[in-house]
User: What shape does this take?
Amino acid sequence: MTHAVVLIEAERDALTTLGSALAGLAGVAEAYSVTGEWDFVAIVRVPRHEQLAEVITGQLVKLPGVSRTQTMVAFEAFSQHDLESMFSIGQ
Assistant: This one.
């Protein structure tokens, strides 16, 4: 499984509709509206690395209102359970 975090800058007119459009894309596991320089964060999960291009450049960046993106591909994924076990002290 390949994971990517996509930061998305939206056009002002798309701020109220883009979140649900992002969440509706196949391969987008989660979409968040956020504060700061970026307007949305999408978590993309696909079975094969090659599918990232299909989801991100083939669909996501073509959504109306997307003005800029930055994609970060994960080297390794940790679940909450993994993090809890890493930081527990012999419990």
Q: What stands out?
A: The helical segments are 18-23, 51-56, 80-87. The CA atoms of residues 9 and 38 lie 5 Å apart. The chain has a mean pLDDT of 91.
